[in-house]
Specification:
Number of domains of chain A: 1
Helix content of chain B: 25-40%
Order of helices and strands of chain B: EEEHEEHEHHHEHEHEEHHEEHEEHE
CATH architecture of the largest domain in chain B: 3-Layer(aba) Sandwich
CATH topology of chain A: MetI-like fold
Shape of chain B: elongated
Largest sheet of chain B: 6 strands, mixed
Order of helices and strands of chain A: HHHHHHHHH
Structural class of chain B: alpha/beta
CATH superfamily of the largest domain in chain B: P-loop containing nucleotide triphosphate hydrolases
CATH architecture of chain A: Orthogonal Bundle
Number of domains of chain B: 2
CATH class of the largest domain in chain B: Alpha Beta
Largest interface: A-B, 20 and 28 residues
Strand content of chain A: under 5%
Radius of gyration of chain A: 20 Å
Distance between the termini of chain B: 43 Å
Oligomer: heterodimer
Number of helices of chain B: 11
Number of helices of chain A: 9
Strand content of chain B: 25-35%
CATH superfamily of chain A: MetI-like
Largest sheet of chain A: none
Number of strands of chain B: 15
Distance between the termini of chain A: 53 Å
């Protein structure tokens, strides 16, 4: 295989992976972020707006979704993807199971980050007459911001792994390239190139995420 | 603003089976414009009582009044409005790490929806008031403990509260900073006509700033009154313990106030109030009765309104003579306590 062709293949796959990552990160955050905030806020142990029953239900939902192996979840979600985007194959269709698989993960990460906020500070805010919404928006989220940025970084990196798996069942992207060319057609150089790009992506995203989180912390 | 507590109780049951009654039928009358101390050991229920007083928790029984208005059963919206007119400061400051000093002070104004301009003006005023002008843009982590508590005080005062609650506000500070913060509290209390409720486990704090004190033990009030009266005539054992700790403690902040030169003995504690401190009562005592005394410890407490002299002595002689001598001291206005 010529170098130009290899570059073309890897370039196209990288574009697909980036698109998948962007869309699935946005969608999983849209689903998981509010869920994480709700998990934290309803927790009776924290006492911001204790709703033991709702908290139990949300916990069950998140645990159930998280215990599914991704590949199974993806197959189960084919019909949903078809209904939402009209097809169950291709880069955009893959975003549906990716987002739904990552959402409970995001929820837990957000919940954990918010739990780290000093309870005394939350209590002080309440004593000053903050509404629950003000506590979330003006206290919990700003106080937890560096931890939230680290959590979101971790989510994106996890999604790179998931998206590579999604490639195996028709999602496209670097994982798909590595399996189809590298594994099924015995082209180790394609496999190596795909893995190298994934490696670089992970490094880059981790670097940016760590830098951002540290920057927010250093301002305190 | 006057605060009245009527039989306030609070019991915790979860998660263990044992129910802990943290506050038992507490009744208090906190006069408007006073500095009122509530002293107790850890676990006495001080923090719970403060959470009830500051409307963070609702009592299981009893009633709480601010001025004449009942406030323990307010609906959510009014509760929030009411809390915005209270100021609170804490032992560990509870400032927002994500905000600068100025932004911390701005928080209570923001949640009330004040305009940007009004917030800017008020925060500058408050920084000036607590002696932090020019430090407004400092991140919280760059401030010392005393400065943090000043920011917390400014934040508590932002909405011009009628009541300031202090939850062990000086317990994390060194003696010098404690005095500075107490001075500041006294100053702003005068200036803003605040009622200050101060929770503490340190008798020094009560002595240095409070006009009234309530002693809390095991969830109940065991003693209340004006600070000078409590210092002179402590009734409950726990109050005596607090005072003993204060007088015998290492290097009290106002130097040389109490000296103990003998660890054992000291059956009688004599307290001399005000003018008596200057009279030769003890000489008179030995002249009149066949007794002798041995001073084990002595000193003077400087209270805001009058001084109290304390002598810890042994009195020896015939039991009858000793009894007469004590009678003589009591008749002369000395408070005599016999320790067991």
């Amino acid at each position: 295989m010529s170098f130009v062709l290899l570059l073309q293949l890897v370039g196209e796959a990288t574009g697909q992976t980036l698109l998948m990552l962007l869309l699935s990160t946005l969608c999983s955050l849209a689903l998981g972020f509010p869920l994480g905030v709700l998990l934290c806020v309803t927790d009776p142990a924290l006492g911001i707006a204790p709703r033991p029953l709702a908290h139990q239900l949300l916990t069950r939902l998140v645990n159930t979704l998280r215990s599914f192996p991704f590949i199974i979840l993806m197959i189960l979600l084919f019909p949903l993807a078809r209904w939402l985007v009209g097809t169950s194959i291709g880069t955009v269709a893959t975003v549906v199971p990716l987002a739904i698989a990552a959402a409970p993960f995001v929820a837990r990460i957000i919940e954990t980050a918010l739990q780290e906020v000093d309870r005394g500070v939350i209590q002080a805010a309440r004593a000053m007459g903050s509404s629950n919404w003000q506590i979330v928006r003006k206290v919990l989220l700003p106080e937890a911001w560096p931890a939230l940025v680290s959590g979101i970084t971790l989510t994106i990196i996890n999604l790179i792994g998931y998206s590579a798996m999604a490639g195996a069942i028709g999602g496209g992207g670097l994982g798909d390239l590595a399996i189809r060319y590298g594994y099924q057609r015995f082209r180790p150089e394609v496999m190596a190139a795909a893995v190298l790009v994934i490696l670089l992506l992970v490094e880059l995203i981790q670097f940016i995420g760590s830098r951002l989180s540290a920057a927010f912390l250093s301002r305190r | 603003m006057r605060i009245t507590l009527k039989n306030l109780s609070r019991t915790y049951s979860p998660p263990q089976q044992t129910r802990i009654q943290a506050v038992r039928a507490v009744s208090l009358d906190i006069p408007s414009g006073s500095i009122y101390g509530i002293i107790g050991k850890s676990g006495a229920g001080k923090s719970t009582l403060l959470r009830l007083l500051s409307l963070l928790e609702k009592p299981d029984a009893g009633a709480l009044y601010y001025a004449e208005q009942r406030v323990d059963d307010l609906p959510p919206r009014e509760l929030i409005a009411r809390r915005r007119r209270n100021g609170l400061i804490f032992q560990n400051f509870c400032l927002f790490a994500s905000r600068t000093a100025r932004e911390n002070i701005a928080y209570p104004l923001e949640i009330c929806g004040r305009s940007r301009g009004a917030i800017q003006e008020r925060t500058a005023e408050l920084l000036e008031l607590v002696g932090l002008a020019g430090r407004g843009d400092a991140p919280i982590s760059a401030l010392s403990g005393g400065q943090k508590q000043r920011v917390a005080i400014a934040r508590a005062l932002a909405n011009e509260p009628a009541i300031l609650f202090c939850d062990e506000a000086t317990s994390a500070l060194d003696p010098q900073t404690t005095r500075d913060i107490l001075d500041l509290i006294r100053r702003i209390k005068q200036k803003m006509q605040l009622t200050v409720v101060l929770i503490t486990h340190q008798m020094e704090v009560v002595r240095d700033i409070c006009e009234y004190v309530a002693v809390l033990d095991n969830g109940s009030i065991v003693e209340t009154g004006r600070v000078q009266d409590i210092f002179v005539r402590p009734q409950a054992q726990i109050t005596r313990d607090f005072l003993a700790h204060l007088t015998a403690g290492p290097a009290a902040p106002r130097a040389g106030s109490f000296v103990r030169w003998s660890a054992e003995g000291g059956q009688y504690t004599l307290r001399f109030v005000g003018a008596q401190t200057g009279e030769p009562l003890m000489s008179e005592l030995v002249r009149r009765y066949p007794v002798s005394f041995n001073i084990r410890a002595g000193g003077i407490q400087y209270l805001p309104e009058q001084d109290i002299g304390t002598l810890v002595t042994d009195l020896t002689g015939e039991p009858e003579a000793v009894a007469q001598a004590i009678e003589f001291l009591r008749n002369s206005g000395v408070i005599v306590e016999e320790s067991v």
